[in-house]
Fold this sequence. Notes:
The complex is a heterotrimer.
Chain A: E1 5-6, E2 8-11, H1 15-26, E3 31-34, E4 49-50, E5 55-56, H2 57-70, E6 74-77, E7 80-88, E8 91-98, H3 113-117, E9 121-123, E10 132-134, E11 136-137, E12 149-150, H4 160-164, E13 177-183, E14 186-188, E15 192-194, E16 211-212, H5 214-221, E17 241-248, H6 264-278, E18 283-288, H7 298-308, E19 311-322, E20 328-334, E21 340-344, E22 347-352, E23 354-356, E24 389-391, H8 401-422, H9 427-433
Parallel strand pairs in A: 1-13, 2-3, 2-14, 3-6, 14-24, 16-22, 17-18, 17-22, 18-19
Antiparallel strand pairs in A: 4-5, 7-8, 8-13, 9-10, 11-12, 15-23, 19-20, 20-21
Chain B: E1 9-14, H1 18-27, E2 36-41, H2 49-57, E3 62-67, H3 77-94, E4 102-106, H4 112-129, H5 132-150
Parallel strand pairs in B: 1-2, 1-3, 3-4
Chain C: E1 9-14, H1 26-34, E2 39-45, H2 51-64, E3 68-73, H3 76-89, E4 97-101, H4 103-107, H5 114-133, E5 141-144, E6 148-152, H6 156-167, E7 171-176, E8 190-191, E9 196-197, H7 198-211, E10 215-219, E11 221-229, E12 232-239, H8 246-255, E13 259-261, E14 270-272, E15 274-275, E16 287-288, E17 298-300, E18 303-305, E19 312-318, E20 320-323, E21 327-329, E22 345-347, H9 348-357, E23 365-366, E24 369-370, E25 373-380, H10 405-419, E26 424-429, H11 440-448, E27 452-455, E28 463-466, E29 475-481, E30 487-493, E31 495-500, E32 502-504, H12 510-514, E33 541-543, H13 553-571, E34 575-578, E35 583-585, H14 595-599, E36 606-613, E37 616-623, H15 633-637, E38 643-645, H16 650-661, H17 664-671
Parallel strand pairs in C: 1-2, 1-3, 3-4, 6-7, 6-20, 7-10, 20-33, 22-31, 25-26, 25-31, 26-27
Antiparallel strand pairs in C: 5-34, 8-9, 11-12, 12-19, 13-14, 15-16, 17-18, 21-32, 23-24, 28-29, 29-30, 35-38, 36-37
Helix pairs in contact in C: 1-5, 1-17, 2-3, 5-16, 6-7, 6-13, 10-11
Amino acid sequence: MDDLHMDALVIGGGIAGMQSALDLGDQGFQVALVERDPSIGGRMITLSKVFPTLDCCSCITTPKMSAVAHHPNIHLYTYCEIQSVQEHGAGFDVSILQKPRYVDISKCTGCRECEYECPITVPSPFDRNLGAYRAIRVPFSTAVPQKAVLDPEYCLWCGKCEQKCPVEAIDFSQQPETFTIEADSIIMATGFDLTPVSTKKEYGAGKLHNVIDPLMMERFLAPTGPYGRVLRPGDGKEPGSIAYVQCAGSRDETLGITYCSRVCCMYAIKQAMLLNGALPMADITIYYMDIRTFGKGYEQFYQNAKAMGVNFVRGKVASIREDADQNPILKVEMTDTGEIVEQTFDLVVLSQGIVPASHPTVSLPLGSDGFISVPAPDSAPCVTGRPGIFVTGTAAGPMDIVDSIVSASAAAAEASAYIRENGSRLEVEKEALYA
Amino acid sequence: MSQSQQPKILILGTLSGGYAGADSTGQSHLDYPPNTYILPVMSPVMFPPEFYLRAFEHGMDGIIVMYSGTDSPYKVEADGTAKLINRAYQLMKERGMDIRRLRLAAICTVCVKPFLKEVNQMNDLLEGIGFVKDEIAAHASAIVTQEAAHG
Amino acid sequence: MPENQQPRIGVYICHCGGNISGAVQCESVAKALKGLPNVTITRTDESMCSDAGQSLIEKDIQELGINRVVVGACAPMLHEQTFRGAVTRAGLNPFLYHHVGLREQDSWVHGHDKTAATDKALRLMSAGVAKARLLQPLDPIRLGAEKHALVIGGGVAGLRAALDIARQGLRVTLIEKSPFLGGRMAQLETVFPTEEEARALLHDLIQKVTAHPNVTIFMGAEVMGVSGYVGNFTIQVKQHSRGVSDDNAEALMSACTQEVPDPFNYGLTKRKVIYRPYEGCYSSTPAVDWDHYDGRPFDVNGWPIELKDEPKSFELNVGAVVVATGFDPYTPPQGEYGFGELPQVVTLPQLIRHLALSKDGKSLQWNGRAVRDVALIHCVGSRQVDGVHQPQEDGQVNNYCSRVCCTASLHMTADLHKRYPELNIYDLHQDIRTYGRGHEEYYRHALEDGVRFLRYNGEEVPEVSPAPQGDSHPVLVKVKDMLTYGEEIEIPVDLVVLAVGFMPRDLHGLDKMLKISRGNDRFLLEVHPKLRPVETAVKGVILAGSAQGPMNIQESLSAASAAAAKVASLLGRGKVELPPFVAAVDVEKCNGTGACVEACVYEGAIALQTFNENGEEVKRAVITPANCVGCGACVAVCPNNAVNVQGWTLAQYEAMVEAIGMDLPAMTEVTA
Ligand SMILES: Cc1cc2nc3c(=O)[nH]c(=O)nc-3n(C[C@H](O)[C@H](O)[C@H](O)COP(=O)(O)OP(=O)(O)OC[C@H]3O[C@@H](n4cnc5c(N)ncnc54)[C@H](O)[C@@H]3O)c2cc1C
Ligand SMILES: Cc1cc2nc3c(=O)[nH]c(=O)nc-3n(C[C@H](O)[C@H](O)[C@H](O)COP(=O)(O)OP(=O)(O)OC[C@H]3O[C@@H](n4cnc5c(N)ncnc54)[C@H](O)[C@@H]3O)c2cc1C
Ligand code: SF4
């Protein structure tokens, strides 16, 4: 393995983590990027197009991913879990678990022969379980690294992949391995999950057939999506009317999530615009409390959507149930008229908010909102309560891609200053940084 | 060999668009006609209209320029390429060539379906209208006949 | 140098463990290619990217004198870098390498027709060989870079950028136009979301900046001219005199009688033309307001003292420039919501200053009266609608959201409620946009505090008019409230507060000097709104803070630190290295038509220069590689093909196309 003394260790390979790693690497620092999934890319690589430019998301994410992969100063550790972080001087000893891929990545060429041979079909989390892939597979077409990974939970150990692999990369004997990286600083870029709605009984607690989460809609709309078109997961029919329920799981005291998730207004508007193209005949209604299109170019985006015919209705969705044909029915308190109306749709998207990614692996003080705490946001927005550890992207609270990128570069600046001021590398080496 | 009897399609694919789109198509193992030759380009805004004519003379029967359009990292690409291609169309017309042999298409890194559509469409077209060398020859002989008639 | 000799080409075809060889007969392709001119050796291997495969190439370079390498393998995206590395290790220039994608673009898509796949591989590879013959060694564009950056603007963003650049071990010069540091933040009292004192936070920051040995600060200074490019900008600076010194300041200040409206308090008060904007400002030495000083001498102990601005001009050499010139609060035109006509209409920034000046008192006083009812109107100068709002000078309306004003307004209502619990507050908004961490709390508290929220429609804005004589309140606000189902409501109030939005500051041509652009909203424009949010289209010119668009303090700080990270990446090594794929002119062929210059849209990338050739004045195109992006727009228009993008020349493409079109019998003949 590589020299295991790093200037910085970045945890999480979403857009924020990748950007921090690139900014540090570009300055000559040695950076370890540790990602729990088998590929980097985070949520962003699963999105369809991005607001407000409507750039194809893969097109702007893959270049970053390959820049990370090819960067001489970035050392990528995918499919790894952080086990512990211990102070060591001004830096840290980080113990990391390499989960077994059952594939020797030094041999695997990403040819996918194993995948074609594998008899077991499993739901693909990349496609929000709407699509399926094999028990052994390259996680998705633009994955970095382009290496197969075997899912022991589903594998029958039939050995077909092993026989088929042209480079003998399959290795059933792989075991979890632990290794340690000594790092002068750490950047937390562990990202987000959607707010859970399983406890939100009024909205069907995740059990209604044609009520989906927004990341599913992203997959429906993505050029690489599981079906290549938008359909009702309940019965595969093309929806003629679609509703968005804003603030589903944000600004909601009953769920204990009182904050605004910042991105939901914009992604709902974006999806509505994309649906307008994909299903030109469909009626799209967005039920909202406040439309928060505050970013650069966002208000104009909102106005364009209105002009396009997307229906914006100010109203609070009190509950959702479904009829005999599994059509969701919304009960809405209309703010503009005071009435309570019921409206049936073919498909409903819950504009779920953002909560911190499930397992914080580094013990850090958290804010009352559950995100990593930033004690002095008006003077040091990326500095956490533990010296030498910095936070960026949605690990520090809801934010969109552009804000994540800015915050990632800012975290890199904080980390590099910290390394220079406290780093344990020899002075000579530090000089060499800028030689 | 069989391929020599097939019309040839030259594809100029931008690194940030068409070329990457072709790689994505490959990663999905989706078949398309093999008489297609993809060359990577930074931006097709570098090709003068005459380049396309010479390519036809070298036996390319169809050319698809797969650029990144307005998503291009180069701000001239979208308008600039379209202008150059339009001039190429004029030159083609003057030479009695079917301008459908030259196509400009915006293809992105994961545009697998649009990529296949473009390639198949061009292939179908060429099967109908045949080799460019025949078209050039026919035009040349038409001119000869015309000149003979006039003079 | 091996590269200058006749091409000796090594061709390598990878089986990719059956992935390629399953469809392509690699051996036949290799054999056919062997016969092509300049091809010295062809080989196949199970896995070229393996160490063994790479060593094959390295050995051939060293032992057979191979000086051009072509590998047919998986997509170049995956392994082009790998093989460039291998040839470099063997002592060859990395750009004498060419990669052909035979997997994604051949074997994986034509597996059903092996003959066709093999034929295609042969044509693609011979095209690769054709290009290889014309490959030239290339070096990255290396530019010396001053390890010194300029930050323009001494608000919170500029200060933070300067500090963070200094912390990366680089030198920084900060120039601030006004004689004092701090920008708009100094005009705030407590700030959301932390409720810290704005000037205390600023003070800390200024202390760190001024104490840092790498930082030089010029106040009362502005940029007069810019030349050069990334790594090497020359900046002309003019610095005005301060006018007074610590020794004579107090005496002069007390002698000074000329007063002008105080911009620090947005004109609510007056100050002398020799001034400190606030207690504890930096620098603590007062300054003369040259724009307003009428030039009359001051009487100090009977001596008339006349002050003169004697600006100094000097030059700075810097490698990068950070623009942190900030914003102006929107100033409503006379009559918008009664502004400038009714004395009871103020802007939010003015109210902040007013509250700061009236520290005590049981009730809020305005215009000599106690205020009982106050209306706060959101989105003044923001989210404007064409046809409803009066356009700005450039004919456009401000159709953007100013992002800060909602939270700033509710932060204000919290403050008002705390100080004057009896006060009735009406909040007239379109949407409440308290999006940030800790912002929604202000909204909740406002609801709890009894602030009355009314919602208006962007097309039907509220009306502010004087109340009829004898009314209990001086002003009437009319609003069609969407929260009560479109009811027309009249609210009699004592004070109307306009939550004004952000406008970019007048830059007096600075943007033109730096050749950076503005967006439709007139704020400075980033090069890519998603991926490269702090860089501009001009390499080495970087944005920080609210000059780019509305931002709060936290966002301005992040943007500033991000800008510092970009500066550190650019200048840290003392040189800037750019890929060699830029235009290059063949002077032998160039006859100075200038078509290329016209076609190029990148400022300063290509220009005509006059040379003396055999006693004759001739014009030739000259490239400035630092400004060229390598799009090739100039290549297409040059009648002589005198200009080409290095590594991607037109001649190479022509050769490749010719090779693809070649008759296969002819190709196999040379082989035989
Ligand atoms: C439906 C939807 C649509 C959206 N659309 C847009 C849009 O159009 N435009 C836009 O700007 N924004 C959009 N966003 C927001 C955007 O997705 C986020 O801003 C962005 O993805 C945040 O990136 P991140 O790097 O902070 O987090 P993530 O993308 O979540 O990345 C975090 C990474 O860290 C890894 N990780 C987590 N924990 C660990 C651990 N313990 N150890 C190692 N690795 C770990 C994760 O596996 C992941 O790879 C959308 C969001 C949603 C929900
Ligand atoms: C009413 C109101 C209340 C606010 N309250 C809060 C709050 O509570 N919390 C919060 O987080 N944010 C708040 N903000 C936002 C905050 O004021 C800004 O985020 C912050 O001031 C932006 O700083 P800046 O450095 O980008 O710009 P500025 O503060 O405008 O600084 C720019 C500096 O550049 C200088 N300059 C301009 N042009 C030139 C030139 N050509 N050459 C040299 N120097 C130049 C200027 O003199 C100035 O010093 C509020 C804003 C308003 C309007
Ligand atoms: S932040 Fe609020 S007040 Fe300001 S423009 Fe946006 S919506 Fe209007």
